[in-house]
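Subject: sequence -> structure tokens, single chain

Hey, anyone have a minute? Need the predicted structure for the following. Not urgent.
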Amino acid sequence: MESKELDISWINEYENEEKKYDIFYSGAIKELKVSCMYINKMNTLSKIINKNIELKSENLIKKEELIKLINDNKKSENINFKIKNILLYNITLLPDEINFFIENDNLNDNTNTNTNTNTNSIKYMREINLIDDIYLQDSIYFFSDLNTLFLLFKELDNNITAPNKSSLKNKEENNNLNKNNTKKVRFNIKKIKTRKHR
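Reply:
Had a minute. Here:
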């Protein structure tokens, strides 16, 4: 009996063809873009610094990583800033939703005057209210560059300085001394006779 070899070349061709579309499949986020935005005392955006960071754990920005990011970036050009807001843009679009997303995204459509419409792009943005672990969701590889952590910094007002503890203590001591040692002061006012002019 003669043995026939099974032709599996079509499987290899299919796998090679499928590799072209790998960028359209979802996967874990291992690297994230961080955008540090600096707002000066005049409430205008003065500087933006973008960088990419590697996450220690997939789909997770640990609290320690977030604190380090904030501390490493709270000073720019010898000016001190404080963190004002933290925003995360995490595009969680599924591969079968790409066409719908492209066809229905009204972000750049100036003809849409309905302000109640929530555009597709905006719905992936969320505000981070607590400095804690931030969990990300899988994202399509093709859109991975869009996933961004925004750190908004506001310039500190240098005119307002907190008083030193020692000066507070001295004021308290002075107040206590004044309360314990009260002095009585008396004024003796004599009537002064004036001359009458003629």
